[in-house]
Amino acid sequence: MARPKKVPEEYQDPFLHCRTFGHTWRLGPGEDQGHFYQFILVCEECHTRRIDVINRRTGALGGYRRYEYPEGYQATRGEGLARTSYRIEFIRRIQR
Questions:
Q1: What is the CA radius of gyration of the chain?
Q2: What is the dihedral of CA 89, 91, 93, 96, to 10 degrees?
Q3: Whose CA is closest to 74, among 15, 3, 22, 4?
Q4: What is d(CA 66, CA 61) in angstroms, rounded to the nearest whole number?
Q5: Do the Cβ atoms of 11 and 86 come closer than 8 Å?
Q6: DSSP 28-71
Q7: Which of 18, 68, 72, 85 has its CA 20 to 30 A from that of 47?
Q8: Structure confidence at residue 68 as a pLDDT band (50, 70, 90)
Q9: Are strands 61-68 and 36-43 parallel, antiparallel or unpaired?
Q10: Interior CA angle at 13 toward 30 and 44, to 5°?
Q11: Closest by Cα among 68, 65, 71 to 15
Q12: Taking a C-beta distance cutoff of 8 angstroms, is the pair 43, 24 a contact?
């Protein structure tokens, strides 16, 4: 039996903020990797980390982009809700 979809009411406030508006990235530590440079961006709200590996010569995304999410942020595959559902919950919370 499939687990029910994670509803917006279950999200912590910072997670709901990012699901509603997107992440607020700040540049974290970087790392020189020879022909590439690894940038780590950290969301100020939910603390998700985005790792970009950029080609130093061309500026192109050289290796990969990946995300590291905090526990409780992600729904399992196929259980995500529309962004509008998160927006409605965000409005409900600020009107309390």
A1: 17
A2: -140
A3: 15
A4: 11
A5: yes
A6: EEEEEETTEEEEEEEETTT--EEEEEEETTT-SEEEEEEEEPPT
A7: 85
A8: very high
A9: unpaired
A10: 20
A11: 71
A12: yes
For residue 26, how many other CB atoms are within 10 A of its CB?
10
The secondary structure of the chain in percent helix, strand, coil, rounded to multiples of 5, reads 25, 35, 40
Q: What single-letter amino acid sits at 2?
A: A
Domain assignments of the chain as residue spans, ordered by start: 8-71+81-94
Residue 3 has pLDDT above 50, yes or no: no
- Residue written as tokens 């910072």? 14
pTM of the complete model: 0.78
Q: What is the spatial distance between Cα 83 and Cα 50, in angstroms, rounded to a whole number?
A: 20
Asked if 20 and 83 count as a contact pair (C-beta separation under 8 A), the reply is yes
